[in-house]
Amino acid sequence: MSESVTTKTEQGLYINPKALTAHLSALQYQDEALYVEGVSVSELVERYDTPCYVYSQQAILDVYREYNESFASVEHRICYAVKANSNIAVLGVLVEAGAGFDIVSRGELERVLAAGGQASQVVFSGVGKTRDDIAFALSQGISCFNVESISELTLINMVAKELDKRAPISLRVNPDVDAKTHPYISTGLKDNKFGIAHDKALAVYEHAAKLSHIEIVGIDCHIGSQLTEVAPFIAALDKVIELIHGLRDKGIELRHVDLGGGLGVRYIDETPVTIADFAEALLPKLTELGLPVFFEPGRSMVANAGVLLTRVDVLKPTEHKNFAIVDAAMNDLIRPALYQAEMAVIPEILPSEGLDTEGTQAWDIVGAICETGDFLAKDRLLSLATGDVLAITGAGAYGFVMSSNYNSRPRAAEVMVAGSRHQLIGKRETIADLYAGESLWQSEK
User: Fold this and answer.
1) Which among 228, 302, 396, 297 has a CA at the least distance from the CA of 67?
2) Is 61 a domain residue?
3) Rounded distance, CA 282 to CA 71, Å?
4) Is the pLDDT of residue 186 over 60?
5) 369 and 286 in one domain?
6) 234, 269, 295: which is the final residue of a domain?
7) Which domain holds residue 222?
8) Count: domains in the chain
9) Is 370 among the catalytic positions?
10) CA 224, 149, 85, 24: dihedral to nearest 10 degrees?
11) pLDDT in tens, 377-407
12) How far is CA 391 from the centre of its chain?
């Protein structure tokens, strides 16, 4: 039986660092010191300072290979969702591995191209594609547009006609399936802004088939993010299969089915379905369907491949709360403030006595931003001293990509580790970088 990861007390939550890292291939303790692959956190901090995002190349590749192997019995394409982590070094690792990509903007497509990827391996999702987005994607030979509305379909046809091209499209169908996740990352309900209603999809496909510069190639469905159960995926797939049969009856044959992403990860003590079990549940239906299948994983590919390193600057115990003020903040990692996400915070040096370590007490881990909502974790049982380095795990997805310069704070550095090698893949911003594109107002004299 594996060692328990969490212990809840009246004072707060204790996370057993060694038990947690047993579930994370990117992190482990060696001689009580925390390592990312073969490099100690102390070496990384000495070289790159804090706050700093660090990604494990091997952990990224391990998940990609698990997806490929789990779905090996059907023709498939794993299209990494660039929005999860768009650093071109991360994208380059996946290009070399043979991945496709799922994008939601021209900027993300240009990142994929800069990383050595091909537009022919890219699907273009998102509700607000502009004329410029569409024209650029068509000029590059995009694999498919995942269309979210009739007006978007009309615009794509218009731009394709101007360029004398046929635009490959699939419709993103909203199956009205409850993903049972946070409302902000649920995307498959009728109240969400995404997709075309299931009961309208056949009519929209028939309309698309009549458009002069549209080529129907697939059907797409994405119901949300951080899903820990397989049942919502099955329910969505059943509705998609129903539509595919309806399309065949009308003489519309598809070349692929895209089931999106959304598979959850373990941040602390969640128990998400494994990729292998996810595949086992879907494969019988996919095999019978006989169409190539696309997946768009993001979080599950990179979340646990990354860690945010931060240093304790100030300890502020009060009568009601103990605050550990660190050099990272909500501008660096907004998930806890935005989604009330609970992420693990573990020390660089493994405490010898664990929960019974002298000085252990409940701390709120907070940043220096002038917002009460600026917190990274609450009521965590830790033994802390000023200068301690902490690691926030699960930070490889929706971490740096959602960071900002609020309070005129430079964004953190990004580093990739592969075995015993490490490389700066994202320079830390300077104060001067923050206003380099600004200019003083020239008042009239």
Assistant:
1) 297
2) no
3) 9
4) no
5) no
6) 295
7) 126-295
8) 2
9) yes
10) 20
11) 999 999 999 999 999 999 999 999 999 999 9
12) 19
